[in-house]
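Thread: adenosine-5'-diphosphate complex, take 2
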Amino acid sequence: MRSLRTKMVMIMVLLILALMTVVGSFLINGVGNYYIEEFYLQMEQTFSQDFITQLQDLAVGPDGPSQMKQRLMSQSDLGIDLSRRNVYILSSDGQVLDSSNKATSVSMTANLLQAMNGEVGQSGSIASSIMDLAVPIERDDTHYIVYILDNKETVNALTGRLFSIILQSLVLGLGICVVLAFLLSQILITPIRALTTGTRQVAAGELSQSLEVTSRDEIGMLTRNFNHMSQVLQSTISQVENERNKLSTLFLHMTDGVAAFDSTGHLIHHNPAASRMLSRELTGEDTFAAVFGEDTSFDSLLSLKRSEYLECQKRAGERELELFMAPFSADKTGGGVMVVIHDVTEQRKSEQTRREFVANVSHELRTPLTNVKSYAETLLDAGDDMPPELKKNFLGVIVSEADRMTRIVKDLLTLTKFDYGKMEMNLTRFPFAEAVKNVHQAVALDAKNHRHTLTLQCPEDLPCVNGDRERIEQVIMNIVSNAIKYTADGGKIDITAGTKGKEVYVTVTDNGIGIPEKDLPRLFERFYRVDKARSRESGGTGLGLSIAKEILNQHQGNIQIDSVFGEGTSVTITLPVAE
Ligand code: ADP
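Output below.
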């Protein structure tokens, strides 16, 4: 690459060369032509008709050629000078009869030939090495030719001198030009260099460039534009960066998984949610087929329109996933496929739970209803034939089944209120020990009926708690009732209350039937019972623990069940102490 400076020097040199060549050749040509014209003008003036007549007179006289030569040499305005301009007297056939320089022959020229033909030969050209004039002198039978020959020495000497002057000025001009070109290029190059460095830095990402504007010319304007451009670029890039950051933050934290594949099916982007949902660490090596299987054709996805998408289901370990797949560019080669992964496990679970719940409710209500119906029908059919004792017994069953249904409906209503946040709480500050003691008193008779040994350990100075006393007592009651229910008669039930840090607790321990380990996690599910028949027999609905858990949640409390199957159960509830 040639630098701007070299180019400028070359342009200047070429310019000077061209200029000097044109001027030089015009000058040299002009001088040459001027001399030729001068020569012929001089000849024309000299060889007037009078002068020719004089020459004709001399020609016919004795020793004509010599006389003519003398006359011509004495004619001062002919400028005969032996070294450069000579006069020749020729015969009509071109023989030299006499001459000023004693030459015996002359070269044949166009002018001479013309004079031989009887006409004056007076044409000359710059290209010719001589200037000549041939005038025929004729009278009667006498035919001579006067021939003036100038060897152009003066012209040549002058043009030679001119040439050397032009050459010298050319050399000098070139020297000045080179220096000027250097200086000029320096003025131009300095800001251009600064601009070059600036653009290089901008290209390298240093956008805070601001160059000094040193002139008000085009380069100054260019520098100003460059500064403006880098400012605009900086603000545009920072806007784009902000947008990208926003998107990547969204991408990073969105709960749905997103995975993007290029047109060859290789993974190009994914967010942490995608890895989590698919239960595998995604890498750039992964392909669409490896991640989502071969069921969906990647090519058919690529050929979808941009507004279209494909929806399908996938199972990843325990998770149920819903996939929405769509191409992100109409261009098959440059685009790819975006997959949005939606985790529907919880949704499916809750749908399942709802279905099970409805089935459970129907089942739980159907059994007592069937009983009521069959006992009522028997009573109706038997009429007065039935002994009053049996009748009473049957009616008792009907009432107890109706009570059971009422309990179920009441419990369900309580749970529904919790579900919809409509449960009204009667919040008070009350001593926890009193609530425990109340429950102890209430169940004492029931425990006695089952011959259980019921103990209570409750310090008097237990702190107060904030909450709905009635509901908290309901929870403790439910736990103690369960201990009574699920312990064979003559068992041992201990109620222990106390404080632990900023919490109060009550633990109900029994030595009853216990709960198998596999059932422990499901005890708080609605209608879940380990032994349905036993629960039903003892009047349980399977909703007690669910309600207890909901009530404790409302009070920021907790419930924990530990049990060994066949040995006994220990249930602990904790509640935060009132401030
Ligand atoms: P239920 O009305 O059936 O008692 P709960 O929700 O109160 O319903 O209890 C759920 C199930 O947990 C019971 O059916 C029973 O199988 C089991 N359970 C609760 N407490 C005890 C306990 N102290 N000993 C053994 N099993 C228990």
